[in-house]
Each structure stands twice: as C-alpha cells, then as structure tokens.
Amino acid sequence: MSIDQEKEIKRIWRTTTTALRVKAVKQLHSVLLTKCDISIDAFPKTSKYLAICIDLCWKMGVQERPMHVDADVETGDNSEKILDLNKFRPYTKSGKIVDFVVWPALFMHEGGPMHARGIAQGCNETD
Questions:
Q1: What residue ranges do the domains of the chain occupy?
Q2: Cα angle value 113/106/43 (rounded, 5°)
Q3: Which residues pair with 89 in a beta bridge?
Q4: Which of 97, 98, 112, 123 is a Cys-bridge partner for 108, taking CB atoms 3.0 to 4.6 Å apart?
C-alpha cells in the first residue's frame, strides 16, 4: 500500500468516526437528559457539561488502545477499602481507608501507565 493510499484511508476513517461520534453524542445526550429529567433550558451549563463528558468518553474509548478508567479500590484484611496514594490523591481528608471515590484514576490503556491519579476521600475508621 502506498503512502497516499494510507493517508486516504486515515482521512476517510477520521471523517467517518467524527460523523458517527457527533450523532452518537447527540443521541446519548438526549437519552441521559430525559432519564435524569434535566431540562436544557433550566440547566444549560449542566447540559453542556454532560455533552462534553460524553464526547470525551467516546474519544477515550475509540483509541487504538482504549484509555482505562479505574475506580476500583484494594480491599484489606477487614474488608476495608485501602487508600493507595500511588493511585489516588486525597480529596478533603486523608486517611488509610477510602470513604468514597470522587474521581477515578485514568490509565493510558488497561494495564498500562497511569495518565492521572484519581481522587478519593480518606478516613481512618470504618463507619
């Protein structure tokens, strides 16, 4: 295959996937707004944020090796969720145990290098 043919195939791929992405984002956006009972007129910024999130997730998922979002937390001896500071940074409180995950960790691909640490609320005791 010549370089020109490869370039043409890539151009067609980008055009096709962009058109598909735009259509899919619009449909998902509409469905989520309906299911969550969010009015575009009442919450325009929320609606715009949702559309951006959907678009970003789509782009992360269609990569040659899809990016990996990981909110899993290691479980310790007493079924406690241990706060791994290599994977998460503390939210407003630190501690040895995860109270809740605020934002998941992001990896370049499953099993690959970390792109960004997640954020988790820490605590020292299980409640």
A1: 3-62, 69-123
A2: 160
A3: 119
A4: 112
